[in-house]
Specification:
alpha+beta; 137 residues; 5-stranded antiparallel beta sheet; globular
């Protein structure tokens, strides 16, 4: 509970303070996520690699230093995607949206995604390879 009280101290308390970031574009505004231990993580849109839908929340894979980290956000994928820069993300099926500004290697047989030739992520659901034709030349 000590973490929550410290967090509440820095959350804006007036409507004017709450709206201080409203004028910023989605490219320059951080997004709030949570870890499994309920710690707050702020990440810019360009740090988001992929989004996975899970009922009433989304799992988001973000770039963190030299690695990657899963964080969560309450709400639907659709709600998050309308807030993100549309030129950066493509929804591939009902489960996944991917940052298309990254170099992506998709292995259909292994059902894995690799971002920028770094770490690989195992997918729980297949992505139709033809979906990549919609976003690539």
């Amino acid at each position: 509970m000590a973490h929550l009280s410290k967090l509440l101290e820095i959350i804006p308390h007036t409507p004017e303070e709450n709206n201080q970031f409203d004028e910023l574009s989605p490219d320059s505004r951080p997004f709030r996520f949570f870890t499994e231990k309920n710690c707050v993580v702020l990440a810019m849109a360009d740090r988001i690699l992929m989004i996975e839908s899970n009922d009433h929340f989304v799992k988001v894979l973000i770039r963190e230093g030299d690695g990657m980290r899963w964080v969560i956000r309450h709400g639907s994928m659709k709600e998050l995607l309308v807030q993100l820069p549309q030129h950066m993300f493509a929804r591939f099926n009902r489960f996944y949206a991917i940052n298309i500004r990254c170099t992506i290697i998709y292995d259909n047989e292994e059902q894995t995604l690799q971002f920028d030739r770094e770490q690989t992520v195992k997918l729980n659901h297949a992505i139709d390879p033809s979906c990549f034709r919609k976003v690539a030349r």
